[in-house]
Amino acid sequence: MKLLGSYTSPYVRKISVILLEKDIAFELVSASPNGRDACVTAVNPLGKVPVLLNERGEGIFDSPIIAEYLELAHPEPPLLPADRLEALRVRQIEALADGVTDAAMAIVRECGRGGGPDENVLLNQRAKICRGLDALEEHAHEGRLLNGPTLTLADIAVACTLGFINYRRVMPNWCVNRPMLVALAERLFARTSFARTAPPVAAALYGTEML
Ligand SMILES: N[C@@H](CCC(=O)N[C@@H](CS)C(=O)NCC(=O)O)C(=O)O
Questions:
Q1: Which atom of ligand 1 is nearest to the CA of 210?
Q2: Which domains are present in the chain?
Q3: What are the pLDDT digits (tens) for 114-154?
Q4: Is 51 helix (H, G, I), strand (E, B) or coil?
Q5: Rounded to whole angstroms, how far apart are CA atoms 209 and 36?
């Protein structure tokens, strides 16, 4: 399999972690979003990464769809519960985590804009992040995130979100009053799959080029 993108993207990281956790061999092919790489737009008209090329060369895009595909094609170890309603609950948390990432990314973009950021945009996106992280903290308290024995897609998505917020220093004080998320981040970042997909520190200095 080939994965198009780079580890500066939290969505690419999410898929890479899944591939590593499922022990699926893959090659990360460095590719840029926003129409800068024809190999991306050839598969995804939206020009976004990640894009997965499977063994037959078929392209799959949008990280939740890729995650679903990998779960179907490589069920072991499962990252979703067998019960479909329970699986939907895990996917709901994945969607929430991805939405927080979207908001964090909007802040990074806004701050990189010439002429300085629009404070209203920053306030709006920060509010989404705060509400989203509070809800995730609540899910963790309810035992819906790791702190139990079984790793799920929700844990992976949430840890990728927290990793991105840290990496781009979007909200340095997110840890305050969110002990369950701190514990989740500590446990997940210690896994080989996360250590192997850490975004390159120097790339954070390149501004918004890879967003
Ligand atoms: N919903 C998509 C979001 C992917 C996404 O926004 N990727 C960013 C890179 S981190 C991108 O390609 N941005 C370019 C764009 O928005 O045109 C997913 O989960 O895969």
A1: 9
A2: 2-77 (3.40.30.10), 84-195 (1.20.1050.10)
A3: 899 999 999 999 999 999 999 999 999 887 776 556 899 99
A4: strand
A5: 10
